[in-house]
């Protein structure tokens, strides 16, 4: 498809970690065979619990970590596997906004120097016009031009994150990966940054990958949402489908676990409670990674790894990795678990 | 006060169901910093009735933790100083107690759980031992009885295989289980009031949902739950206190706070958070400009003045006090109070 | 009940470093007071005193031969040997009747350059090797670290002594031997700095912006690692003077009759009753060591924009020098 800006196929990123003893090294499959795409001007949200591989996915696209396997295509260009090779080119087209605005800015440089750097590195703007461009960038993110002369620590968290966004905008990229851009911010400041990102995207036709563990922020920002669990993309679906057409048990459970700031809604809610915690990524369950917590897991789930497959009409753009996706989408996980059809099999204890 | 103490201690003669088990009045806490005195808690007052779930919400740094810790006299001093205030648990004022009496009340009548369960546990003692330790001392339990109590408590908070878990060390439990164990530890002494300082903030949402479900099942326990997550508060609390830079700016029943917030800060806060249940992705979130005031140099008037959208001249000079607005809420805002009188 | 205290969170620190605009006159006054107090502390009296002493010694070192009352080596008045301080010989004379004052002043000409050169060589060589070690990693890192371990496992002075003894006693060999003993310390420091800084998010951000590895290193890693190196260097300057003195004291340092502080103290060891022979060169050493230590401490604060308060200069070497020598100008707070 020509309208897709970014196509990721079967992306895997593995890390070697030492486990206590000095010699034994284990492999963490931080991202395991994940496929998705981002269209031009589209926002893809990536959501999931801590350690599920959201950041690593973003880092892999940006070439900051080495991928084990998989293809990444930007526009019509295939990216090489090496870390250094496509760096220069890649960073002109893809930029990143990081979670912690304090540590992601060089504290020894002024805001002006920070924003000039990408311009200089890529030599986009002639030296004489750079100061002017920095001023424009600052205004774009709603900061006074005079900020250029000050150091990052002189700004509040929200302002620092806006500086981080301005830095990402400097090279006029086609895609910006935002890795939990609001996680370190206060509630009242969060909205400023979310609004800014949306405005910029609309104005400049940017594509965004919005990574967050905050489901409500992702649903607010994203056109399509990818749900990750233990390194796998368990479901990719349009925002409109999230509320009532999601087809993966985890997506439904996740959504049901997110508290809604409305006491009436909360009182009358039916909740799907999952058992236990997320298993260790060093030792993931066999078959479906979600099966140890899944309310409807059957024997096949422990044996066969469910493939990421299209569900519904192709055009709806929903893919899911669950053996019982059709049933889940139709019946809803709570009803399924209660019915005899897909009652919890005997292999698990109750929490 | 002392007569009330006696009767409630024995548990007799409380005709009205909603007996106040905790009364915090005019709590003031300061931090002595290199830059001057930071006024972290400024006259916080609230009452908790038996079985009631009270939530304290507010942004980071607004003094939620300081309030809880000061009320239990757990704030390290220096740098902090609890300037004044009284904290009555069943009529006994914690502020006037000696160390021994204080220790007895903590854990037995009132107890606390923290955000970071791992650092709240001693890493070299088994979980079971730590759960029962306080009670064991107070009730002079035998070792076997203490273990039994720990296992019982763990089972009550929904830890699977409690007998085994009680013998394990804190780092061997998963995050969610550790949080449950900490709740078990706090509840072992059968307190009437439980303080909870964002105990689910560090957890994943699906695990948070489990813990919230557990807490909702404690019907008779009075809880003061601190959080910055309005969603959690909505699903848990009966009554809500909204704090801003150390002040209580609004208080009321949870439905009223969420459906007809009176203070401009509460209202803005509610409109600044995206919701999952309405897919209105197109609407702009309301953002509150600026940032909270410096606690070292609090403005003379309303602390929210700089960021307030409806402010009037008076707000800059006079600090609003908490007054009743409407039937159920109290609000510290001149504009909201004036509106109430007008209507 | 096992209730545990929470440790104060990072926000506390933010509260103390981010200067917000105070509003009421009273609070503004209080703010100013606090600012004055902290700036007095960070501007650091000791730093300027130290700087003054070092500059004074530098001037003396370059010009001493022009104005000292007696020639430091050639003037000998054996009749007036071991004279106590007097109007003509204000620091007294030594066993050959040479003027101690002239010799102490002239001694700066050798002692200071030895110290500076030694630290410069050890610092630059050590930092470069350490940076490579940290950046490249793997076998290279392993090898370099083992070499450092070997050198560091000897007591510094003993090793230096052995080297000078083998090479022959002259000032150049002193420099060579002490730098050889010292560079592993810089190497280790730089390596550990690089290793930790490399994982900082701002470095990831720089890579993702498109900076080349050399640029990442020079602009984003080095400025974070340099302050520690510079502080160590200033402290070491004093140390080198002491080691030189030690070598001279044992007799393998600078050869007589060249005036050098350490050598002078060592020559005086047999003449305890002539206290001026020890005290004046000793004071010279002491004042320099102290001065360098003061400056080193002050530098650490000066090089950190966070401790320094706003300044429109970035991380360039020029601005760093300006910061070190001119202090900083307080820039006006522009409301954001
Ligand atoms: N450099 C690394 N070395 C080893 N393991 C790593 C590394 N980076 C990430 N991991 C592991 O890979 C998994 C995925 O990590 P990642 O940071 O992508 O998760 P995440 O979804 O972004 O989580 P969070 O919400 O906590 O940021 C985790 O189990 C993590 O421990
Ligand atoms: N040790 C300390 N020294 C100085 N100031 C402190 C200290 N501890 C806390 N403060 C300040 O006191 C105020 C109240 O802190 P508190 O921890 O109660 O906030 P909080 O509402 O619990 O915030 P959070 O949501 O981040 O936990 C904050 O502004 C904080 O900066
Ligand atoms: S039903 Fe099976 S495949 Fe689907 S989520 Fe549950 S465990 Fe995984
Ligand atoms: Mg992450
Ligand atoms: Mg807190």
TrEMBL record, chain B:
InterPro entries: AAA+_ATPase, ABC_Ni/Peptide_Import, ABC_transporter-like_ATP-bd, ABC_transporter-like_CS, Oligopep_ABC_C, P-loop_NTPase. Coiled coil: none annotated. It is a peripheral membrane protein. Keywords: ATP-binding, Cell membrane, Membrane, Nucleotide-binding, Transport. NCBIfam families: oligo_HPY (TIGR01727). Pfam families: ABC_tran (PF00005), oligo_HPY (PF08352). Its main location: membrane. SMART domains: AAA (SM00382). CDD domains: ABC_NikE_OppD_transporters (cd03257). Belongs to the ABC transporter superfamily. It is found in: Cell membrane. Residues 22-270 form the ABC transporter domain. This is ABC transporter domain-containing protein. The keyword Membrane applies. It comes from Microterricola pindariensis.
């Amino acid at each position: 498809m020509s309208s897709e800006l970014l196509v990721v196929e079967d992306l895997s990123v593995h890390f070697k970690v030492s486990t206590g003893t000095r010699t034994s090294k284990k492999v963490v499959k931080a991202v395991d065979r994940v496929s998705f795409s981002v269209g031009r001007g589209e926002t893809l949200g990536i959501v999931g619990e801590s350690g599920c591989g959201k950041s690593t996915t973003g880092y892999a696209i940006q070439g900051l970590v080495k991928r084990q396997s998989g293809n990444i295509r930007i526009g019509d260009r295939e990216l090489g596997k090496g870390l250094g090779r496509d760096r220069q080119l890649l960073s002109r087209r893809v930029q990143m906004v990081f979670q912690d605005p304090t540590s992601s800015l060089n504290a020894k440089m002024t805001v002006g120097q920070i924003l000039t750097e990408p311009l200089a590195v890529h030599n986009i703007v002639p030296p004489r016009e750079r100061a002017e461009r920095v001023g424009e960038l600052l205004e774009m993110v709603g900061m006074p031009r005079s900020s250029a002369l000050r150091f990052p620590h002189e700004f509040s968290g929200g302002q620092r994150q806006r500086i981080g966004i301005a830095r990402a905008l400097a090279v006029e990229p086609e895609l910006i990966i935002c890795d939990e851009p609001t996680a370190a911010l206060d509630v009242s400041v969060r909205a400023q940054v979310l609004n800014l990102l949306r405005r910029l995207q609309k104005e400049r036709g940017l594509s965004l990958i919005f990574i967050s563990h905050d489901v409500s922020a992702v649903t607010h920002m994203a056109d399509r949402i990818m749900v990750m669990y233990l390194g796998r993309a368990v479901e990719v679906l349009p925002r409109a489908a999230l509320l009532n057409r999601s087809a993966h048990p985890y997506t439904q459970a996740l959504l049901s676990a997110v508290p809604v700031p409305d006491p009436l809604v909360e009182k009358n809610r039916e909740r799907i409670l999952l058992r236990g915690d997320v298993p260790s990524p060093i030792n993931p369950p066999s078959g479906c990674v979600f099966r140890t917590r899944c309310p409807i897991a059957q024997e096949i789930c422990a044996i066969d790894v469910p493939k990421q497959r299209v569900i519904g009409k192709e055009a709806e753009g929903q893919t899911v990795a669950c053996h019982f996706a059709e049933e889940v989408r139709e019946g809803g996980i709570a009803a399924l678990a209660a019915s005899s059809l897909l009652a919890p099999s005997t292999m698990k204890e109750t929490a | 006060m002392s007569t009330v103490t006696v009767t409630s201690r024995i548990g007799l003669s409380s005709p009205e169901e909603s007996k106040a088990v905790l009364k915090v009045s005019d709590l003031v806490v300061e931090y002595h910093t290199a830059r001057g005195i930071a006024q972290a808690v400024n006259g916080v007052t609230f009452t908790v009735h038996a079985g009631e779930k009270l939530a304290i919400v507010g942004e980071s740094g607004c003094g939620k933790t300081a309030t809880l810790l000061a009320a239990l006299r757990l704030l390290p001093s220096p740098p902090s100083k609890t300037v004044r205030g009284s904290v009555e648990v069943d009529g006994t004022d914690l502020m006037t107690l000696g160390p021994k009496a204080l220790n007895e009340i903590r854990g037995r009548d009132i107890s606390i759980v923290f955000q970071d369960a791992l650092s709240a546990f001693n890493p070299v003692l088994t979980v079971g031992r730590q759960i029962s330790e306080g009670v064991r001392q107070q009730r002079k339990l035998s070792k076997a009885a203490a273990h039994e109590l720990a296992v019982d408590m763990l089972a009550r908070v929904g830890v699977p295989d409690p007998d085994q878990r009680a013998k394990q060390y804190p780092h061997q439990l998963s995050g969610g289980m550790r949080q449950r164990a900490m709740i078990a530890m706090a509840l072992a002494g059968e307190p009437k009031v439980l303080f909870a300082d964002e105990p689910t903030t560090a957890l994943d949402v699906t695990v948070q949902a489990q813990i919230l479900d557990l807490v909702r099942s404690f019907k008779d326990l009075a809880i003061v739950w601190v959080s910055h997550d309005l969603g959690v508060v909505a699903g848990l609390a009966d009554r809500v206190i909204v704090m801003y830079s150390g002040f209580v700016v609004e208080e009321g029943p949870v439905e009223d706070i969420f459906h007809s917030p009176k203070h401009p800060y509460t209202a803005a806060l509610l409109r600044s958070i995206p919701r999952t249940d309405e897919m209105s992705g197109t609407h702009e979130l309301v953002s509150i400009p600026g940032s909270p005031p410096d606690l070292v140099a609090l403005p003379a008037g309303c602390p929210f003045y700089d960021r307030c959208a409806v402010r009037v001249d008076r707000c800059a000079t006079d600090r609003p006090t908490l007054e009743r607005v409407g039937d159920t809420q109290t609000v510290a805002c001149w504009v909201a109070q004036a509106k109430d009188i007008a209507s | 009940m096992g209730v545990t205290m929470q440790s104060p969170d990072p926000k506390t620190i933010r509260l103390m470093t981010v200067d917000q605009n105070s509003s009421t006159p009273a609070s503004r006054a209080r703010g100013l007071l606090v600012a004055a107090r902290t700036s007095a502390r960070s501007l650091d009296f000791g730093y300027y005193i130290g700087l003054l002493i070092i500059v004074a010694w530098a001037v003396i070192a370059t010009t001493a031969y022009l104005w000292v009352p007696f020639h430091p080596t050639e003037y000998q008045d054996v009749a007036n040997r071991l004279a106590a301080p007097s109007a003509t010989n204000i620091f007294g004379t030594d066993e050959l009747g040479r003027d101690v004052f002239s010799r102490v002043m002239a001694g700066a000409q050798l002692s200071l350059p030895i110290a500076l050169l030694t630290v410069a060589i050890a610092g630059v060589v050590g930092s470069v090797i350490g940076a490579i070690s940290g950046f490249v990693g793997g076998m290279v890192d392993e090898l370099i670290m083992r070499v450092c371990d070997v050198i560091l496992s000897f007591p510094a002075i003993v090793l230096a002594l052995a080297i000078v003894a083998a090479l022959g006693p002259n000032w150049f060999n002193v420099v060579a031997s002490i730098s050889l003993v010292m560079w592993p310390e810089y190497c280790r420091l730089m390596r550990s700095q690089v290793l930790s800084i490399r994982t900082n998010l701002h470095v990831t951000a720089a890579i993702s912006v498109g900076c080349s590895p050399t640029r990442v290193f020079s602009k984003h890693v080095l400025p974070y690692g340099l302050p520690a190196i510079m502080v160590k260097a200033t402290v070491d300057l004093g140390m080198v003077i002491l080691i030189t003195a030690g070598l001279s004291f044992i007799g393998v340092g600078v050869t007589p009759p060249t005036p050098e502080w350490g050598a002078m103290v060592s020559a005086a060891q047999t003449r305890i009753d002539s206290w001026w022979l020890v005290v004046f060169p000793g004071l010279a050493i002491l004042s320099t060591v102290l001065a360098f230590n003061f400056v080193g401490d002050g530098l650490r604060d000066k090089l950190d924009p966070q401790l320094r308060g706003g300044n429109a200069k970035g991380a360039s070497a020029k601005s760093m020098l300006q910061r070190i020598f001119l202090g900083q100008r307080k820039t006006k707070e522009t409301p954001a």
